[in-house]
Structure formats: structure tokens, C-alpha cells
Amino acid sequence: MTQQRRASMADVxxxxxxxxxTVSRVxxxxxxxDPVTRTRVEAAMAQAGYRVHRAARALRTGxxxxxxxxxxxxxxxxxxxxxEAVVDEASARGYAVAVARIGEGGPAEAFERLRxxxxxxxxxxxxxxALLRQSELPTDLRLAVVDSPPDDRYAGVETAHAAGSAAATxxxxxxxxxxxxxxxxxxxxxxxxxxxxxxxxxxVAAGLQPGALLRGAWDSASGYRAGLELLANLDASDPVTAxxxxxxxxxxxxxxxxxxxxxxxxxxxxxxxFDDVADAANFTPALTTVRQRFDLLGQRAVAAVLDxxxxxxxxxxxxxxxxxxxxxxxxxxxx
Amino acid sequence: MTQQRRASMADVxxxxxxxxxTVSRVxxxxxxxDPVTRTRVEAAMAQAGYRVHRAARALRTGxxxxxxxxxxxxxxxxxxxxxEAVVDEASARGYAVAVARIGEGGPAEAFERLRxxxxxxxxxxxxxxALLRQSELPTDLRLAVVDSPPDDRYAGVETAHAAGSAAATxxxxxxxxxxxxxxxxxxxxxxxxxxxxxxxxxxVAAGLQPGALLRGAWDSASGYRAGLELLANLDASDPVTAxxxxxxxxxxxxxxxxxxxxxxxxxxxxxxxFDDVADAANFTPALTTVRQRFDLLGQRAVAAVLDxxxxxxxxxxxxxxxxxxxxxxxxxxxx
DNA sequence: CTCGGCCGTGATATCGTCAACATTGGAGGG
DNA sequence: CCCTCCAATGTTGACGATATCACGGCCGAG
Lengths: 335, 335
What we know:
The structure is a homodimer of 335-residue chains. Chain A contains twelve helices and twelve strands. In chain A, helix 1 packs across helix 2, helix 5 crosses helix 12 and helix 10 packs across helix 11. In chain A, strands 2-1-3-4-5-11 form a six-stranded parallel beta sheet. In chain A, strands 7-6-8-9-10-12 form a six-stranded mixed beta sheet, with helices on both faces. Chain A is α/β, with parallel strands linked by helices and 335 residues long. At the A-B interface, helix 4, helix 5, strand 2, helix 6 and helix 10 of A face helix 4, helix 5, strand 2, helix 6 and helix 10 of B. Strand 2 of chain A pairs antiparallel with strand 2 of chain B. Chain A binds a DNA duplex (30 and 30 nucleotides) through helix 2 and helix 4.
């Protein structure tokens, strides 16, 4: 089997005894083709091992069949999960996904690369706040942004961060906790701000004073540091007995901090995370957390781009609480 | 600012008063251009906001400037890290990365999609063993495979799994452990087999009997189950005091299992992982593990594809041991 | 019986780029 | 001073697909 050049429409056309135009119609499923002809062409395509040359099609039609995914990092488990969901949904629709990472050049550079690549649209995965100040997106690029503030330059898809966080906080309050702290994500993050809001508003609504507010950077190391700081003065008169952590990875760090300080979870400290990462069920102890539906987020984001959701539109995915072993009623110190 | 169609070479050529061919030469950095002309053309390109139409170029040259990344899942942290490294290296070289996931259709389907997309080459990220039985890769696709058995149909890049695992095992032996178990990855995995080999050979070479061998599926839940099983009969006459776990996520599950059974790590059980995932330093306790250099792996894999490494070639990246708090000398039971 | 219109199909003209060859003008050697 | 050669630039023609228009034949309405 010699290595021939790949078959083109002309080859198939000749083989089937029709014009290239008819082959094109068959390839694109046009209804204006006689069933008999269609069958003959399909046989010829199979025989020649024909496949559409996407570059040629793209040149002619102006559409590439590629969507971009802009991502800041894949070290955050949530981002990976979301990317996976985006890839799945795009593949199912016959689109390819090109990944662009936001590097030192900032989001503008990532968009530059994608535009260069000629994508039909792009999905921005989380942490796109820096975008807001930018002025790209010159209308030629359909855009869906996950977890960013409302903006009428793009379609938005987001988790119900505030509601999820509120549910987590309410869960702790119902267990009997009175001093509930929060370890938030970075200030630049919309998701972090929303989760913080859910925590704060729930407490205020319940007539409780919000506990300490610390801040991390999504990763477990920053969660560990925040945990140490939070737990340093547990002996105070009104000690924290529970903490809502803005994501699971930081919660992992908090668990480690508690362990090192000899503080038992959940006996002395209840910890709730956010994301319900696959590993969360196997933290020590298993983590109570708020589930993000990454699969749905990805599906909706892809749909927004490919089905042409209006810029400015928003879709919100609910986030159910998953109760596991890291939360319990506060331990009452034997006086 | 009206929405014009994008500028083509012809537009730039007219603007600069040269032919499109000269514009092409400038765009491709040909040396056969007078510096003065070059400057003028560059100015015109900037003014017109010109960018190469990659589909047109691909049609003409037959190369797309896209490399594919075939991945089974992004839920395994190692895969995500590797993908990130691949994206970075490819971007640095001006290539785009298209992600294809191995779904129900198996690897063949993923390759089909990539070939369809017209990638210039592809990188297979881990867990590609199923590939071996397949007969795709009809020479038209440059292929680099990470962590798969040697095969002369593709270039291989891999971590020194056996050596890393051996170092971990030796570390435990030097601490004084005599019964060292192993929780391996799935049987289909080359990396898992190599890591198991490193463990076994080190023990045999030291004249020790290999401890129990259990098997998981890379995820923390399977690590938890294996951990429970391993630790169920710790009271035996010759109890295991250390375990080498084939990756960090499974080690996380083992830590949880130990905790639930009231077994102290590292006092009663030393645990060593593999990967050195970002979170490993914040497990409870901080995990001793073998570091995989995902950045290097990604770089070499991309290089292998784009610089045309020979099929059959192999590159091995070393994997240093990182000692943290989950390993210590075995606790001697007060008799 | 004639004519408009639809159906299936074909012919043609690009889409933007680059390879290959053609052309120009001037430098340098004999 | 002429010829050669080379550097710089231009001209032409695909690459493979599809949008658009054109065409022959058949059907049903008037």
C-alpha cells in the first residue's frame, strides 16, 4: 500500500461518475440529492477513503469548526474538569477544541492566538476577571465566559456560587455553629466574591456576626497558611467552630493545618469546601462540600457559543450541598 | 469603525505598493527581502491589522500548525499537568493544541477526529496501552506517546518510573522498614507496571520478601479501598509498616483509610506516593512522594513530534524522591 | 396543449496563500 | 565596455471546497 496523497472530492467525483458539487452535497447532507446517487457517492467516498479537507472548507466558508478554550491554569482541578466537559460537548457537536493558556502576555495574548487560529468562538474558563478591563473581543468572536461578572459583551454561564455557599453556611448554622469563618478565594475572582457573599448574607440574615475572613489563592498551600492563621488563636473567648472554605483544594490545606495543630475535624472544627472534586470524598476526613456541575457548565458554555446565545445572557447552574464527614455539631467543651 | 472583512495579503500588498508574494515573504521571514521593503510591508500589515489566514496557508502547504493531544481523562491530576505543559510548549513554538478525548469509541475514534482535523502530529498522554493493539497511525501522523511501552511506530517519552519507585522503596528500607507493600495502578498501564517493578526489584535486591501487592485505578477512591484492605489485618505476625503507592491520589485514599482505622501515619505506617502533585505537600500528613517533571515531559513530547524524533526513539526523564512527613522509621512496639 | 416551476445535477468562480518560474536592474569580472 | 550572475521582486497557477448560477426534464395547472 503505497502512501498516496489523500483523496479529494475530485477523486471521489470521478469514481462515482458525478461532479464534485454533487460530492459536496452528499458530504454536507444536502437533501437535494437523489438517493441512488447518494448511495453511489457514499460508496465511492468509502472506497477512496475520502475525508473532507477542513482547511479547504474553512477557506471557502470562513468557518473552521474549532472553538477555543481560554484557561489560566490546569492545576486547579475545577478548571480541568470544566475543560474536559467542554471538550466532550464540543466533540459531540463535531467541533475541535483548541486550548490557549493565559500566560505572561495576559488574556489578550491568548485571544490573539485564538483569533490567529481562526476559531469560530471561544470559551473562557474561570478566572477571567482580568478580561474585564481589556477591550478585545471585536465582535468577530463569539464568546462564552464561565464565572465572570455580567457583561453584555459575552454570554455568561455560572454556578450558583452564592446560593451554594449559603447552603453550606446554613448547614453549619443548623448544626449549631455560631462562629463561622470564611476562607475566600482571590479578590480578583468573581466566583470567590459570590461565595463570600453567600456566606456573609446567610449569617447576617440569621442575626449572626460573620466570623473571620481570610483569603487564599485557590491552591492547597494557601489554604494551609490561611488555616494556620485562622486556628492560631482558637483559645479566644469566642472561638471559631466552623469554616466555609471557597474551594476543596484550600480546604485540604485547612485540614492539614488543623491536624498539625492537634485540632480534630469535625469534633473541634467543621470544614466545608466547594467544588466536590473527585478526591474530596477521600480527604481525611471526607469533605462536606458544595458540588459544581462541571459537566453541565461545560455543556452550556459550548451551547452558548455554538448556538449563538445573546451577549449579555446568563445561565446559572445550581450547586447542591454534599454532606460528608468534615462537618458536625460543635463540640461542647466540658466545663 | 465598521466591521470590515479581514485584511488579506492583497490588501497589504496594495497598501505597501508591492506584490502579494513579497508580503508572503515578509510574513514568513524570508531573507530575500530588502530591509527597506520589509519595513514598509510590516507597516502596511500593522495598519491593515493583517494576520495570516491559517486555513488558506494550510490548504496551500499541507501543514496546519496544530498538534493534537489525546487524553483519556483530565480528572487524573497528572494528565492535566502534562496537558498544560504540552500546551505551553506548543504555544511557544507557534502551534495550537487540539484536545481529543478517548471516549467510548476508543483511541481509534480520537485519532479519527484528529486526522479529520488535519493535525500535523499528535501527543498521546498516558494510559494509551489500549493503543498497542490497534493498528492506526498510518504513517501520515507524527506521534509521540508518553508513558507507553517501547514501540517503533512512535517516539516515546517517559518518566523513570522504575527508578523513581526504586528510590522510594530504598528510602523506606533505609528507614528500617522490612515489610513494604505496594498499591499499584491498573494492569493495563505501562507506568503502573514499571513502578511495580521498581518496588519489587529493590526489595528482592535487598534480600527482602516483597510485601502485599494491591491494585487500584489511579483515583483516590480506589486507593481508599486498597488501603482498607491492606490495613485490615495489621495485627498479623509480620505486619506491613510501609507502603509504596503508585500515585498521589491513591495515596490520599490510603491516608484516609489509615485515619479511619486509627492507624497513625507515619508512626505506624509510612506512605510514599508518586507524582508530587501540587496538593501532595498539603495532604495530612504532607506526602513523601516521587516527583514527575511534567513540564519536561510535555516539552520533550512536543519536541519529539515537531522536531521529528524517530519512531522507536525513547527519552527518559528522571524522577527525584521528595521526602516529607508521611514516611519515618518504623515504630517499635514496646514489648 | 402550453407554460411555469421544481428537482437533480453540473459548470464556474472564487476563498487567501505560497511554490515555481519569470523578470528586472545593477554589480563585478574579463 | 559588455556579459554574467545574483539579489529583489513580480506573475501565474494550483491547493480543495462550496456559493451561485445555469440547465434539462418532468409535472401539474390553466
